[in-house]
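Sequence in, structure out. Go.
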Amino acid sequence: MYIAFDFQIQNTPDGYVVSAFVAETPSTSRVWKPLRNFGGRQGDAIIYKTEDCPRLNEFNLKNLINRYRKEDKWIRVNGRKFVKQIKI
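Output:
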C-alpha cells in the first residue's frame, strides 16, 4: 500500500522526472519514488505534477511506481492521455 504525501519534478540527465514522496505500509519510512519520465518536455511534467498527480489513487500510484522505466519517455497528447515517445 502506498500513500503519497507530496510530488516533485526532478531535472535528471535522463529528463524531467515526476516523483512521489510515499510511505510504504507497514513501514513508516518515506521515500521518493519516480512515476514518469517526460524527457525534455518540462511543460508536460509540470502539468502532470499539478493536475494529474493529486488525483492518483492507491492502485494507480502502485502501478506507476512498479512500471517505471527511466528509458520510457512520455508525451501528453490531450487531457489525461499520454503516449510513450518512440525512439528513432
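Check: Strands lie at 2-12, 15-24, 30-37, 74-78, 81-84. The radius of gyration is 13 Å.
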